[in-house]
Write a structure and sequence with these properties.
The structure is a homodimer. Chain A contains seven helices and three strands, in the order ααβααββααα. By secondary structure, chain A is mainly alpha-helical. The first copy, chain A, has a three-stranded antiparallel β-sheet. The two termini of chain A are 30 Å apart. The interface between A and B is large, with 53 and 53 residues. The first copy, chain A, binds a DNA duplex through helix 4.
DNA sequence: TCTTCATTTAACGTTATGGTTAAATGAGGA
DNA sequence: TCCTCATTTAACCATAACGTTAAATGAAGA
């Protein structure tokens, strides 16, 4: 799965967004992150694994706790993607090809006639 | 499912992001949207249904075509959510409670001790 | 009216997601 | 060493997601 898909998928769950929001105020242990939610430890653990796989957080070991830290990069990329679409939409310009390339959103794209001719 | 979850889930698929990007350059029929992708019509139709359910697009009937339009609101909300988290994270301030409330991210939250005492 | 064409719905299969409980892991403290 | 505690892994279940092909729908044009 591509990075952007992973980022958006990770943010599509309210528990995970809650965790991200909490981490925006500073690092926290798994237990601290779990506290506000009425779900089991293993469920939290899996949510953290999803966030880590999406590179939205990092985990490090501190004595007998795992401390989670929020990472900037993926959030920035996701925000940028939305921003570009919005900006393009507002501008009314017809430079789609440029936007498509800038966003590298050609996954699954069908072989183009123009391309197969060349 | 809450709105934000629906928005992020809709954006978590590369085909749907491709459709959104295409629509940022202007309205398009289902056929036009389907053209770049190597998947079946029904698959596109379902992607459009997801985007419509998430209120990212609208469909209207024009003769024998269904024309799709991008909508602004949900994209703006999603971008805003990410922006708030990032801003909060960068600020280093400890006003988590305010952020939580502003984002209405208390879904699934466990009964708090302080609350049950009051 | 009959046919065509764009799109959707139905039915189906496979894999992913999110939850659970029970057991495993592994560092710290007694 | 042995116990405790924080967290993860394993095994399982239900439901959602995404793809397919075949059939249905419904407006346009002959």
């Amino acid at each position: 799965m591509d990075t952007l898909s992973q980022t958006f998928a990770a943010l599509a769950d309210p528990t995970r967004r809650g965790i991200v929001t909490r981490l925006a105020s500073g690092d926290a242990t798994v237990g601290e992150l779990a506290e506000p939610f009425a779900i089991s430890g293993p469920a939290i653990s899996r949510h953290l694994k999803v966030l880590e796989a999406a590179q939205l957080i990092e985990r490090r070991i501190d004595a007998r706790w795992r401390v989670c830290t929020l990472k900037r990069e993926r959030l920035a990329e996701a925000q940028k993607w939305i921003g570009e679409v919005r900006q393009f939409w507002e501008s009314g310009f017809d430079r789609l090809e440029a936007l498509l390339q800038s966003q590298d959103e050609r996954t699954n794209e069908r072989q183009r006639k123009s391309e197969s001719k060349e």
